[in-house]
Amino acid sequence: MAKSIMIQGTMSNVGKSALAAGLCRVLKQDGYKVAPFKSQNMALNSFITKEGLEMGRAQVMQAEAAGIEPEAIMNPILLKPTNDTGSQVIINGKPIGVMAAREYYRHKKEYIPAIMDAYHELEKRYDIIVIEGAGSPAEINLKKDDIVNMGMAKLADAPVLLVGDIDRGGVFAQIAGTVMLLEEDEKARIKGTIINKFRGDVSILEPGLRMLEEKTDIPVTGVVPYFYLDLDEEDSLTERFQKKEKPGLIDLAVIRFPRISNFTDLAPLEALEEVSVRYVSSPAEFGNPDAVILPGTKNTISDLLWMRQNGLEARVLKHSAQNKPVFGICGGYQMLGMEISDPTGEEYGGTVQGMGLLDTKTLFRPEKHRTRVHGTFGEMKGILKEMKGLPFEGYEIHMGETILDEHASGLITLENDSDTLQQGHPDGSQKGNVYGCYVHGIFDSPEMSGGFLSALLKEKGYDPETVQAVDWKSYKEEQYDKLADIVRASLDMKEIYRIIGL
After folding, report:
1. φ, ψ dihedrals at 279, nearest 5°
2. Which positions are catalytic?
3. What is the CATH number of domain 3-40+57-67+111-231+477-500?
4. What is the mean pLDDT of the chain?
């Protein structure tokens, strides 16, 4: 059976996901078959596996770092918030409904068999499982029925590394306070602590590290520097939303919805120095972009009404009236149509008028559409007309069905056979310089992202070859190798191997 090691944190966004991915890469490089695992994840950035199952994006990133195909059993419970008090609950890749927080906590223990079935399946097939916790193990109001931090560590009999974030300050109090609030058997599981996101001279930290070891009776197993790598993120606390981009040759405004999902769709464009990708949440931030992108959202109607109330919808409509491109993905695509109806209250309920930029209507249904897709762009119009025939691949994950009226034009052709899609199935819609489709990951291929940027450059009078798109898969492999180098240099890997039991 597989060995295990668990990464827990003193709070959210301390870097657990990235460090778990780094360990996965190091262990892979050292010849081990390694898999990631997170029993319960709360995130709006998700992914569809080859089997058509849904899982959190962090475990996808970690699986890629481990060099393996992502599987839903690596994230058996995924919670996707639909509002401030409720979430869609997904068990082993399949949605079972929307629950209020109190209802979910009443049923949480019932999901332990599903969690352990998933974990045991990975145990059979891998040498090491790198488990990620969530938030903090010292949330004393949640500890009773915990299934993701120390509760999971006990179920898997896993040793724990506790990570603190020094960049936000108070890291010694974070770690010492967390340890103090744990039960004795839980403290015994923590075999090492890690200081993450450090800037400066490590020697200055040394006295504090020794005192921390004395107070907690737990060794410090590493100090990780603050680093800048392009790794997929799923947390709304991501720093990319706060980045102040310098003006590039191409300026893209991405609407930052309150329930924004799958913002990793824009990562291949963000990786290019000549392209500024700005996440905007108010008219004052909108500026004069070359194109506007409306990304995915977990609550299409609510976020459309938010845009309508704060004035961003008016800015997008004015941008479109100036014959500039607007591109909608998934929920953003739904907003661009004439009408959105949610008769059974799958997300918001009721019927609202859309932005009226595409000749489509969307009807929400209880069934969730989940599939991997690939295909080509069809007969394109407007500024993006030269993208005709370009290939793409990605995945669709949505509750609504979008219907084109008789005058509407499709955008893409899906070429894969599946239970729900036939060969040559048209998808998406376009009208003038407004484009939309359901495909997440559509910018991942260099052909697609390169064609999109070339069209925008040409429209501005630049040489369309000025910006060269990256091969996103190869680029990510380089990032994982750089991450592994940082982990090796920063952590006491000999001690970590001893903790794992190797």
Report:
1. -90, 115
2. 330, 440
3. 3.40.50.300
4. 92
